[in-house]
Design a protein that fits this description.
Number of helices: 5
Order of helices and strands: EEHHEEHEHEHEE
CATH class of one domain: Alpha Beta
Oligomer: single chain
Structural class: alpha+beta
Bound molecules: coenzyme A
Helix content: 25-40%
Largest sheet: 8 strands, mixed
CATH topology of one domain: Aminopeptidase
Shape: globular
Strand order of the largest sheet: 1-2-3-4-5-6-8-7
Strand content: 25-35%
C-alpha cells in the first residue's frame, strides 16, 4: 500500500525513494556511532555496508513491501536521513490499520526541526492516502531526543505497551508512542 512511495515536498526537504547512488551520502552519516546509539544496527564500517543497506531497501520496494524515503536537503541536494513506516505486522503483532514509524537524521542536521518537517508530510500522506489510522513508534528508554520529536508531533506514550528486545547483543527496553488519525491536525 505504501509502495511505490510518492515524492513529497516540504519547505526544506524532498522525500523520495532511495536509489543506489544514495549510498555515498548515507555512509557519511551512517558511520557515526552517535546516530546508532538507539537503533538496532551498528555504525557502517565501509561503503559496502551502506551498499548492502541500500540494496535491501530497493529489494523491499521491488517486492512491494514498505520501505523508507530518503530525506534530501534541498539546499545542497544531499541525502541526510531516512524516514518511513514498517508494515511488518507479523513481527510486531499489530493490526492491519496500524504501522510502525522510524527515522534517522545525519547529526550535522540535528536541532533544526527537520525530522518534524519530514514526519508531518509523511504522516499526512499516510492518513490521507491509505487506510492506516494509527502510527506507532517504539522508542528505546533513554532516547529523549526522539521522545521530544514524537511529543512535538502529537504522539502519546502508551504506558501499557512496553517490550524488551535483544539489540546489538544487549537487552533493551522499548516504550510505545502512538498517534491516531483522529488526533492528527492536518
Ligand atoms: C531522533 C532524531 C531524528 C532527532 O533529530 P533532531 O534534529 O534533534 O530533532 P528536532 O530538532 O526536531 O527535535 C529534537 C528535540 O529534542 C530536544 N532534545 C535534544 N536532546 C535532548 C535530550 N538529551 N533530552 C531531551 N530533549 C532533547 C531538542 O531540544 C528538540 O526539542 P525542541 O524543539 O523542543 O527544542 C535524531 O536525534 C536522530 O537521527 N537520532 C538517531 C536515530 C534515532 O534515534 N532514531 C529514532 C529511533 S526511535
Amino acid at each position: 500500500m505504501l509502495v511505490p512511495l510518492p515524492i513529497l515536498d516540504t519547505e526544506c526537504l524532498i522525500l523520495r525513494p532511495i536509489i543506489t547512488s544514495d549510498a555515498k551520502d548515507i555512509f557519511e552519516y551512517a558511520k557515526d556511532f552517535q546516530i546508532t546509539k538507539f537503533v538496532p544496527w551498528y555504525p557502517h564500517k565501509t561503503i559496502d555496508d551502506t551498499n548492502q543497506f541500500v540494496n535491501k531497501i530497493i529489494k523491499g520496494y521491488e517486492e512491494k513491501k514498505s520501505g523508507p524515503w530518503a530525506i534530501v536537503y534541498k539546499a545542497n541536494n544531499k541525502v541526510i536521513g531516512t524516514i518511513g513506516f514498517d508494515q511488518n505486522r507479523k513481527r510486531e503483532n499489530i493490526s492491519e490499520s496500524s504501522v510502525n514509524f522510524g527515522y534517522c537524521l545525519s547529526r550535522a542536521y540535528w536541532g533544526q526541526g527537520l525530522i518534524v518537517e519530514a514526519s508531518l508530510i509523511t504522516i499526512e500522506y499516510l492518513f490521507n492516502s491509505t487506510d492506516i489510522i494509527e502510527v506507532r513508534a517504539f522508542v528505546q528508554v533513554g532516547n529523549k531526543q526522539s521522545e521530544r520529536v514524537l511529543e512535538k508531533l502529537g504522539f502519546k506514550k502508551d504506558p501499557t505497551i512496553r517490550k524488551k528486545e535483544i539489540s546489538k547483543g544487549q537487552e533493551i527496553e522499548l516504550e510505545c508512542w502512538i498517534l491516531s488519525k483522529s488526533f492528527f491536525s492536518f
